[in-house]
Amino acid sequence: MNRNELLLAGLLAAVIAGGAVLLPPVAEAQAESGVPVEYVDTTAGLNSPTGSGWAEIQTATIPLSSAGAAVPAANDVTVEEMQVQAVRTNRQIRVRTSWTDPTQDGSEPSVREFDDNVAVQLPAGGEEQPPIAMGSSNNPVNIWYWSGSGSSEELLAGGPGSTTPFEESTLRTEHTYADGRWHVVFTRPLDPRGDSRTAIPRDAADLDIAFAVWNGSNMEVSGQKAASQWHRLAVSSGPPAYQRFLWVIAGVMIVLTTLLTLEGIRRTGGE
Amino acid sequence: MSSHSSSTEAVDLAEGVNHQVAMVMDLNKCIGCQTCTIACKTNWTDSGGREYMYWNNVETKPGAGYPKDWEELGGGWDDDGEERTPGELPDQDDYGAPWDFNHEQIMYEGSDEPLRPMDDAADWAPNYDEDEGAGEYPNSYYFYLPRICNHCTHPSCVEACPRSALYKREEDGIVLVDQDRCRGYRYCVEGCPYKKVYYNAMKKKSEKCIFCYPRIEGEGPEGEVRGPACAEDCPPQLRMVGYLDDENGPIHKLVNEYEVAVRLHPEFRTEPNVYYIPPFAPPKHTDAGESTDEERIPRDYLEELFGPKVHNALDTINQERERVRRGGESELMELLNSDRSEKYRLEVFDES
Question: I need a labelling partner for A96 at 20 to 30 A (CA). Which of A54, A126, A231, B237 fits?
Answer without folding.
Answer: A126
